[in-house]
Amino acid sequence: MAIGNKTKREFPNVYVILFVICVFAALLTWIIPAGAFDRVVKNGVSSVVPGSFHFIEQHQQGFWAIFMAIVAGFKAQASLIIMVLFVGAAVYYLQETKALDAAFRQLANSVKGHEEIAIFFIMLVMSIGGATGVFGNVTLVLIPIGVALSAAMGFDPTLGFAMIFFGSFSGFNVGWANFATIGIAQTVAEIPLFSGIGVRLLLNVCNFLLSYFFVWAYFKKIRKDPKNSLNYREGMELSEYMGNGNGNANIEGAKLSKPQTFALLVSAFGILCVVVGALKFSWKADQISATFLIVILVIGLLFKASLNDIVSMFLKGCQSVIPAAFIIGFANAISLLMKNGQILDTIVYYLSIPINLFGPVLGANFMVLANVFINFFISSGSGQATAVMPIMVPIADLTGITRQVAVQAFQFGDGFTNCILPTVGSLMGGLGFAKLEYGKYLKWVWPLILIQILLSLVAITILQSVGWTGVAL
Fold this sequence. Notes:
This is Putative membrane protein. This protein is mainly α. Helix content is about 70%, strand content about 5%.
């Protein structure tokens, strides 16, 4: 687009949206009084001391602070950004070998006519991984694989993103064995770790089925008319946004060479190492990045590429995912502005006050909505748990809300909005991999999120009405 030319009004891109939110966050630091709770560290968990909230000197964030926060946001999320670049480079290199193309064509051919079943089992595996905390950063790693598989089946990048992302978060949002969220919340609430697992397993099943049918409906929609694809823009050719001609092209006869087979095995072993490392050894983004750097090197050597060629391909791969990586840095600036302005604790404090005014059932529902709101500012599940649970627990005790219900109210409030918040790195990075505009995504997904939140309020009402403690389950 030439500078100065008038264009039709369009939805702002994600960078504009994030910058506007940064400005809004900075403005809030001039409006909301700065405050803080006293905190104590016990068993490695930092907890808020109930009743310790106090106002402190205001720390307004001005014009310069906004841009410094963006820079700091990139620095704070450097590990995650590097992971996105390295994973993207590895997937790009694998795609350039045509190994993924051949393998996925064979897989797509084997599930031809039964794509719904393939989508179901992919999402089921991701849901179990999400519920147990295995697929945290790993979700973002697997989204490019899902995009490639969707293309091989003849569909768009959005379907590939949805299979992986919604599969993982259908478990994570109501996870029954995720120490980073439910584990910390129950520890702070001083109730048995992973107690109430029976109810949460049922919630996981319900949320998984709801998420699957949402993705299935999109699959049916684009199979009927490819122009319904969220990746479609006016004037695009079918091959520009749908893989293999909407699944009708001849995908038979693809055969893997020995180097391609070994490249896939190396990549699969790398992913296995990442999953096991995350589960057994608490691997984070740095270890994942290093693993995929090794994968890139080994694949290059398998194809007898020179070191110069390997580096060149690596840089091209990084270039392909720079937009996805940059989104993560911009998004983190929002939380930093709130933190630097010392208003996060104030927001938590004032949201806790109205809960005292309601009975246990309405109070539990308000806890869900309060945590939904808080999640817009503290998108980290573990961070939100340590910030709000020490406040919610004494309120629950005073109002007759069971501690298990208070924990579940936190989990509901933290979970579902993760699928729409622009501060969630796996969401924004995943949208980058899928080349899906945030505005289009938001318009598509909001009914699902609304239904999930409404059903969570129904569930929390039932659980509090029966006095659920979860200990006997």
